Amino acid sequence: MLAVFDNTVAKCPDALQSPHSAPASSALKDGFLANHFASLHPGSVTVNLGTSGHISHSLHNQNPFLPRLFAVVDDIFCLFQGNIDNVVVLKQQYGLNKTANEVIVVIEAYKTLRDRGPYPADQVVKDIQGKFAFILYDSTSKATFVAADADGSVPFFWGSDSEGNLVLSDDVQIVQKGCGKSFAPFPKGCFFTTSGGLRSFEHPLNELKPVPRVDSSGQVCGATFKVDAETKKESVGMPRVDSSYNWSSNY
């Protein structure tokens, strides 16, 4: 799976950008990275998201124990890889029918978060038990929602291209092609949203701090993010709003 989001839709953390990364083409320009992905994954499907970017899905060489899924519901696009252990419980929780699979559960969880808040985003992701990584894009609100399980069970990487666009994929070589040295594994137990940036769903009250990654040649290549046990987020009271309030800007 591959997603490239314009920097106006999903702003990369500054720490992902390596000073030693060689200049590279924009991952979005002329569909550069999507075309490269298609050349490596026969039968792949790419969806153009207009000025927001694009997403690509392929079943080529997938791990049968960590299958890839793709779905579109109400202009919400979602790429999912892995398995949800408590999928039956979540289908009941979100009022879904028995045929709904993992990617539909993630979309419905997002819609609940967006439309019926204030339900903490960290709890929405924490309720998903299993081995997973997902990339979701809501074309109506131009919002992204990305997460990986607490154990990092699914290979999942993110990076910044030469223009600061966000690149996400389960294929590290694809990310390197678009980002040079400005990439890293997506942090375990974390989620990323357009409005809130990167946060930990395991430790939602703690800040995350970047730790530079160094390659075999001693050069900095992106950063990993660790929970800062010493720094707590400021407690913010629940705002009082009417029923028409859009909670998507708060997760």
Overall geometry: globular
Helix content: 10-25%
CATH superfamily: Aminohydrolase, N-terminal nucleophile (Ntn) domain
How large, in whole angstroms, is the Cα Rg?
18 Å
Please state the structural category.
alpha+beta
CATH topology: Glutamine Phosphoribosylpyrophosphate, subunit 1, domain 1
Q: Which regions have little confidence, pLDDT < 50, spanning 5+ residues?
A: 235-243
How many H/I helices? 5
**Residues in β-strands, percent:** 25-35%
Number of strands: 14
Average pLDDT works out at 88
- Oligomeric grouping of the chains: single chain
Largest sheet: 6 strands, antiparallel
The ordered H/E elements are EHEEEEHHHEEEEHEEEEE
**Whole-number tally of structural domains:** 1
CATH architecture: 4-Layer Sandwich
Cα-to-Cα separation, first versus last residue: 24 Å
Cross-sheet strand order for the largest sheet? 2-3-1-9-8-10
Supply the CATH class: Alpha Beta
Protein name: ALUMINUM INDUCED PROTEIN WITH YGL AND LRDR MOTIFS
InterPro entries: DUF3700, Ntn_hydrolases_N, TSJT1-like
Domain DUF3700: 2-227
